[in-house]
Amino acid sequence: MKETNRRTFLKGVATLSAIGAVKCGSAMMKSEQAAYDKYNALKIPRPEGLLDGEPVLQTPAPDSMGVAFAVTALANGFAEVADNPEMKNATRFMAEGLPLADIDDRVLCVRMTGLKPGTKYWYRTGAAKLEHPVGYWTKPSEIVWHAIHSFTTAGENAPSHFGMMCDTHAQFEQMARITKKYRELGVPLMVWNGDIPNSLTNAREDFVKHYLVPPHNEGYAADTPIVLNRGNHDFRGTAANRLGEVMMPRLPTERSMRDIALDRNFAFRMGEVALIGLDTGEDKPDHHPANGGFSRFTPYRVAQTAWLKDQFKRPEIANAPYVVAFVHIPLVELWPGANPGTTLEDYATWQKECADMWGPILTANKVQLVLAGHTHRYRYDAATDTRSWAEIIGGGRGAKTFQTLIEGKVEGGELVIRVHNTDAGTIVGEHRFKPRA
Ligand SMILES: [Fe+2]
Ligand SMILES: [Fe+2]
User: Fold this and answer.
1) 375 CA to centre of ligand 1 in angstroms
2) Model pTM?
């Protein structure tokens, strides 16, 4: 390319990015002029139907918030966030990725960063359909937006209030009673404590259905961020290790290089309560033939043990009046001889490996409560002389069980845990915890 033509070309590109249209210089080569003409000739109609379902807030942190949503055609995604409902001076984010922002024909994930802890924000998400009128030259449509929603970031000044649901197992009508309840109660953050699917996850679209467009649950996480903590069923199927394409992992800046693989563990404050997420993994040992020789849950649990110890060195965790740990498989032996998850027979009722590794750390740090799932039956086990923490198991899907929403809130100088039976619309348990000494 001659130097003069090259300059004109570059000027054209700058104009393209600035106003979304191109005015070509007369010095442009004929072939390039033809390309620009073709590019400009394409008029993309407003892409009605591009957005599929509502945004799903996820992976909350004191200074960031993830959001994902489904689309029906190749698009790029945006989130705008502001400290006021009119969206004045909103900051716009694109789907993650450098040097290329992510584009996709089904799932768009955007992370809003640089946020203040414990602060209410308003946001909206949107997408622009992408066409390629000339080779790889990409032309976006206008952006279509979801409605404006809001969230509050985590942090020591956030509300001392959270919820937990578990073992929903793709029973979407039953799940809708939970998601309706926590929205009625104004719970600012929900931990989804494992066993989200009911069968194998063999395609990303399965994740889309479970998380982004679950039937009967439209908007379930548009104003309530979801913290995902996996259960044994979440590791099954050939797409299981592609979960991060739909439910975002935590930012690498939240952990050390040693712990870089632990992209789902979490430890942050919601007001006076520190929430800690630990992943118990599969309900069978690594040498079980079901795992095909490629599962590594024991080293995964060991890695989390080192991570867990270090969390209590962080002042905001060490000084928290209340600490609640989340696991999917219980850490308490539910009855003498209950399956500990280390044998080839059946499957774990409780997770002995995790209990042995993590239990003493939780006790040494005076953690008051472990919230678990997996057995599908609400159960309370009090703390003992040798164990600082009580364990509460949430109810899940099943003919003889009921689904629970476990709500935690600091009231009158105590952490009050209310166990809602969302099938019956009743409260079936209330447990109170004093602040840590
Ligand atoms: Fe389950
Ligand atoms: Fe389970």
Assistant:
1) 6
2) 0.93
| Centroid of ligand 1 to alpha carbon of 361 (angstroms) | 26
Among 112, 97, 118, 103, CA closest to 66: 112
List the shell of residues around ion ligand 2, using CB closer than 5 Å: 195, 231-232, 374
Q: Are residues 121 and 233 in the same domain?
A: no
pLDDT tens for each residue of 9-33:
444 444 444 444 555 556 789 999 9
| C-alpha 374 – ligand 1 centre gap (Å) | 4
Same domain, 207 and 325: yes
7 shares a domain with 84 = no
- What are the DSSP E strand ranges found in 114-184? 120-134, 137-145, 149-152, 161-165
User: How many domains does one find in the chain?
Assistant: 3
Looking at residue 155, what DSSP letter applies?
B
* Ligand 1 center–CA 220 separation, angstroms: 20
**Residue 141's CATH number:** 2.60.40
SS3 32: helix
